[in-house]
Design brief:
Structural class: alpha+beta
Number of helices: 3
Length: 128
């Protein structure tokens, strides 16, 4: 709902600086919420998409144009291969939570993420 997205926007505004894009689209086939902002030396891109198929998300942490970490649950072939092995083709449309490492070279399966969990992750980067 719109109030849920307003809550997400406030969460992002409390952590990120210079929010540069705040997109909220409601239509019968999908709802999209997207915020870009800065966190110290990092560019942050947060996106939630709700469709009949479910909730998709992508949260990316970028420094100097390169991915530092990215969390999403898109049907990524490498993630599906990691989870299902040779049978991955039977699952090509499945949403699968995973994390991309630096420059998207590495990939690991994760639990589902939320805007709050990725913002908590950012706070750990600040300390570390």
């Amino acid at each position: 709902t719109q109030s849920d997205f307003a809550t997400l926007t406030v969460l992002a505004q409390n952590i990120l600086d210079q929010i540069t894009l705040n997109r909220l689209v409601f239509n019968p086939s999908r709802t999209i919420w997207e915020v870009h902002g800065l966190f110290g030396q990092f560019e942050i891109r947060l996106k939630e998409i709700f469709t009949q198929a479910g909730r998709m998300y992508s949260y990316y942490i970028i420094r100097q144009g390169e991915v530092v970490a990215g969390f999403d649950n898109y049907p990524d072939r490498r993630a599906l291969q990691q989870k299902y092995g040779q049978d991955f083709r039977a699952h090509l449309s499945e949403l699968i939570p995973h994390r991309h490492g630096p420059r998207k070279i590495t990939l690991e399966l994760t639990e589902a993420m939320t805007v709050q969990t990725v913002l908590d992750y950012l706070k750990q980067l600040e300390v570390g």
